Amino acid sequence: MALTKTKDGKTYELLRFPMKTMNITQGNNGQYSHQGVNALDIAGKDTGIEPTFAPCSMRYKWHDSAANGNAIFFESTAPVMFADGTIDYATFMFIHDNYIGDILALANKGHVFAQWEEFGDEGTAGRATG
Question: Is the CB of residue 21 less than 8 Å from the CB of residue 46?
Fold first, then answer.
């Protein structure tokens, strides 16, 4: 984990974008399911299934059913710096991965996903519209 220090001694991790391509298919307050929420739908560079990478060092917290899109929640293991300059722990939700059994198997063993470690894939589980 690559930590950076502030002038007052706080340590934090810089976030990385969780995919190699940034193709936003629905943004904040999007037309379909994002009304009133701060969420992005991101697709890969083409119609294939692209991998998802850990934006920071993170550990599994909770997941939902396939019918609800296999939503899986993680929390950073160290504070991260947000776009507004605040430093705090981050919670992430990744959704629509068609199969999360491999993630859950690692999580059940206490695995901590390292920054930029491949951990899942984009997919169409739940109410994906793309």
Answer: no
d(C-alpha 104, C-alpha 94), whole Å: 13
Rounded Cα distance between 117 and 52, Å, is: 8
pLDDT, one tens digit per residue, over 49-102 is 888 999 999 999 999 988 888 989 999 999 999 888 889 999 998 888 889 999
Q: What share of the chain is helix, strand, coil (3-state, %, to 5)?
A: 10, 30, 60
The per-residue DSSP string of 5-39 comes to E-TTS-EEE----SSSS-EEEE-TT-SSS-TTS--
Write the CB contacts of 105 (distance below 8 Å, at least 6 apart in sequence).
none
The pLDDT value given to residue 31:
65
**Spatial CB neighbours of 83, under 8 Å, sequence gap ≥ 6:** none
Nearest-angstrom CA–CA distance, 32 and 90: 25
